[in-house]
Amino acid sequence: MQARDALNYDYSVAKCFTYSTILFGIIGMLIGVVIAYQMAFPELNYLAGEYGTYSRLRPLHTSGVIFGFLLSGVFATWYYIGQRVLKVSMAESKFLMIIGKLHFWIYMIVILTAVVTLFLGISTSKEYAELEWPLDIGVVVLWVLWGVSIFGLIGIRREKTLYISMWYFIATFLGVAMLYLFNNMEVPTYFVSGMGKWYHSVSMYAGTNDAMVQWWYGHNAVAFVFTVPIIAMSYYFLPKESGQPIYSYKLSLLSFWGLMFVYLWAGGHHLLYSTVPDWVQTMGSIFSIILILPSWGSAINMLLTMKGEWGQLKSNPLIKFMILASTFYMFSTLEGPIQAIKSVNALAHFTDWIPGHVHDGTLGWVGFMLMAALFHMAPRMYKKELFSKKLMEAQFWLQTTGIVLYFSSMWIAGITQGMMWRATDQFGNLAYSFIDTVTVLIPYYAIRATGGLMYLVGFLMFTYNMYKTITAGKDISSEPQNASPMSA
Amino acid sequence: MNMETIRELQAYGYIFFTIFLAVILYSYIYHLYRDEKTGTRNYEKYSNMALNDNINDLPVEEISPLNKEKE
Amino acid sequence: MFHWLERNPFFFAVGVFLVIAYAGIVTILPNFMESARPVVGTKPYTVLELAGRQTYIKDSCNACHSQLIRPFKSETDRYGMYSLSGEYAYDRPFLWGSKRTGPDLMRVGNYRTSDWHEYHMLNPKSVVPGSIMPAYKHMFSNNADIETAYAEAYTVKTVFNVPYDKPDMPTLGTYDESKKVVFAEAAAIVADMKSQEVKDAFKRGEIKEIVAIIAYLNSLK
């Protein structure tokens, strides 16, 4: 080990993942906006022949934002936070540097191949697990590399106790590993029969079982990709940016175990009124409601961290992003359990209210926290001032408006459609044919797509701001302790 | 094993684990506050791990090179 | 004990893993035996239907169409008898979907015909005015992959004991035998269709994706 005076944190891997976060963010959100407009204006389906239809693009959007944008962001923040809270530099271990670089490049190869194969329609059809088996193996490899990097860095740490963010990163690693492996158990048909496409496979589970495993995965993939690592980020970036210690460290520990205990039991709420056993459905429902407690535990903890310092909300746009993210977290973790109540679910399931709910969480909570995190990291990684505070403010309001348009239109659309499906006339016959319930939604689809477009434009502003920060930001001599420096 | 036995085991497994976890969770809360009260350990100071995270800052609890863990 | 766990990452990880794995073990594993039993009368898909199912997956029809009828009057009135677990016994993967941008297709074979599907795929608005579904013209020019469909049927027969070649069940046999069955099945559908392109291709010995997917949709009852 070198003398500590000469030592600095090494952000080369974190920088790589920052670029990929931005790249896949643009791709994933752009496709999202396109498919949203396709629902309002179906002619847009024919822009790219077979490869441009809504149905081909939808898995690309979900996988693109989840495994491209978000996962890159998780890795970027891990390679940043990990070193800092363990007080050890990647530069101290050649081995970990190599693992980190390898991790990045294998990740890029897997995700770019995934983009191509999904365009070609090579898919297992399971939501958020569409990749065929050769790519699944790639995912396993990159995940193992990430594990080596986590536990390797922990192995050479100087800080004895693990910070709460580390807990959440470890949980992300373990949770996704378990879920992904079990949900993607499949038999490659070529190796059994010796014919057909070599990459084709068939699921190990059939019918109802397959559905149970899939939604156990689907629900918890949301937990361990959309929630757990984002909490890890918020527990680091919010205190650090504001200079305030976490309101109650003990509450953060309790919320962690609470979330771990409860989350996994709640997956049954995706299958209410389906053919899975009744008690799984009821339990899914009940646990979804209990889930409010640990979620709100974390969210309230974050809001209270700002106690007495609310002035920062006005002066620092990054705090604004993060506080709004926490607020959206509270909002969507209340909305979710409401939708998991059986009678509400009977109305809401299969309607647009569900994507509406997902986007509250992803656009408001995940997107905002991730962008704030990258904004916070940039001055420290590149030793530059953030390029423009004004642009940040504009981006904030544009995107917030976009989210509001998105979820309000989807609420109305979902509830309208749910009510129309079950409406009957005076003789007890169905009042509407299916297509009536589609055409009525078109204005809302247009509003939703416009909300999405505003969010995308905001993301492009973020990209520009980051780009200018890196290339043309004012140099800073020493690392800022708390609030990130920014030019007006 | 027939389905009834499995169902029963499932129900028992579920209830015992839930009780077990509830007990653990409450004793954890107790543990957190008792440690703080008796002065054994102050959990709130761990917040400083994020606030003072320069490579030259002193760790909140330094790991001594002699008793390093394997993992 | 708690504090020890907090500074021993390895045991900490084990603890987290146990907590999160347990829910899966209790809720998922035990049900595997029961819900895997097929309902009487449920048959595995023929090879042509499987090829259609693969097309259905390739174009992600399940992104907009569910295959799960919930036990409400409004749903059974609209789509037919509610779904039973055993009806899905041969569905690998399941295709319940999570969003009904279009109607449920669980029993679409009961009330739609081959020529309806043909018109619908070419131009959805021609049979459903106001439809927002895209046309799937490429299904009329792409060939269905019968070989992979056979490979899949053969695999599930070998690995999961799906009852092909049993009395009253679809025949599979060798690839050549199976091909004859596929062509006989396809011939019936092609005869119902109007597209000259598909008919000519069939004469040349090619089965288009549209033929396979119609076979699959007709089998959903």
The top level CATH class name of the domain at 1-183 in chain A: Mainly Alpha
- Amount of helix of chain A: over 70%
CATH superfamily assignment of the largest domain in chain C?
Answer: Cytochrome c-like domain
What is the third-level CATH name, the topology of the largest domain in chain C? Cytochrome Bc1 Complex, Chain D, domain 2
Task: Note down, in words, how this protein is organized.
The complex is a heterotrimer of chains A (488), B (71) and C (221). With 488 residues, chain A is mainly α. Chain A has a domain at 1-183: Cytochrome C Oxidase, Chain A (Up-down Bundle), CATH 1.20.210.10. Helix content of chain A is 72%, strand content 1%. Chain A contains 17 helices and 2 strands. Chain A has helices at 12-40, 54-86, 94-119, 133-155, 164-183, 189-193, 207-242, 249-263, 278-290, 292-305, 311-315, 317-340, 342-348, 353-382, 389-422, 434-439, 442-472, and strands at residues 186-188, 201-203. In chain A, strands 1-2 form a two-stranded antiparallel sheet. The longest helix of chain A has 36 residues, at 207-242. Chain A is globular, with a radius of gyration of 23 Å. Chain B has 71 residues and is mainly alpha-helical. Chain B has a domain at 1-39. Helices cover 56% and strands 0% of the residues of chain B. Chain B has 2 helices and no strands. Chain B is elongated, with a radius of gyration of 21 Å. The two termini of chain B are 41 Å apart. Residues 66-71 of chain B have low confidence and may be disordered. Chain C folds into 2 domains: 2-35; 47-219, Cytochrome c-like domain (Cytochrome Bc1 Complex, Chain D, domain 2, Orthogonal Bundle), CATH 1.10.760.10. The mean pLDDT of chain C is 90. Chain C is globular and about 75 Å long. Chain C has 221 residues and is mostly helical. In chain C, 51% of the residues lie in helices and 0% in strands. The chains are: A mainly alpha (488), B mainly alpha (71), C mainly alpha (221).
